[in-house]
């Protein structure tokens, strides 16, 4: 089984269980609405969303038009237009979040925390950016300024993700830690950006210095 088929089977098996539950829990307005069936199934949409990141494309547009539409027509015979696909993508946000909760690892007593910036546009285009204008913020890392969000993650000793949280770029790295650490036990390792008097991290014994000073 190739990796794309394996990925789709994972998404499809999950959607078969998740979609009925989602439909049951959705709150309706009472008004009757015509349910228009999408050309792409939810499992296909989720597969494309994950594949985009697996292949490390920089832009979804080039991924969809130059790769998917040209090379994956057999696997996805009912591909909609690029504009329609972009309109459908938000539908897979909640299912992907639920899938993470199913697949995430468990705390085993040794946890490692870190954060990475997620820029939503070039700094020169901040004034013209509209998609995340209400939520993205300017932040700074050791690599310089960026506009977007910070993704905080905690993994266990096996490298499995056990916690994730996305925050605006201008929020202090230490702020989401109390919430992220709920339910964890044992030792938590992180860099000095997480140090605060109200946070207690066990970083283990200090390594002896190899430098000799007079």
From TrEMBL:
One Pfam entry name: DDE_Tnp_1_3
UniProt domain Transposase DDE: residue ranges: 104-199
Protein name: Transposase DDE domain-containing protein
């Amino acid at each position: 089984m190739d990796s794309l088929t394996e990925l789709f089977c994972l998404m499809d098996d999950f959607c078969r269980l998740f979609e009925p539950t989602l439909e049951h829990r959705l709150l309706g307005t009472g008004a009757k609405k015509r349910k228009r069936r999408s050309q792409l199934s939810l499992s296909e949409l989720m597969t494309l969303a994950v594949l985009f990141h697996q292949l490390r494309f920089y832009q979804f547009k080039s991924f969809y038009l130059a790769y998917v539409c040209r090379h994956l027509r057999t696997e996805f015979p009912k591909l909609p237009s690029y504009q329609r696909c972009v309109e459908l993508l938000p539908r897979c946000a909640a299912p992907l979040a639920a899938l993470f909760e199913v697949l995430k690892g468990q705390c085993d007593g040794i946890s490692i925390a870190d954060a990475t910036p997620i820029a939503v546009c070039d700094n020169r285009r901040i004034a013209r950016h509209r998609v995340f204008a209400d939520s993205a913020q300017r932040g700074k890392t050791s690599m310089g300024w960026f506009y977007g969000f910070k993704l905080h993650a905690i993994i266990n000793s096996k490298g499995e993700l056990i916690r994730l949280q996305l925050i605006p770029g201008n929020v202090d790295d230490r702020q989401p830690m109390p919430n992220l650490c709920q339910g964890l036990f044992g030792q938590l390792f992180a860099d000095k950006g997480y140090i605060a008097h109200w946070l207690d991290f066990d970083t283990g014994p200090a390594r002896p210095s190899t430098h000799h000073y007079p």
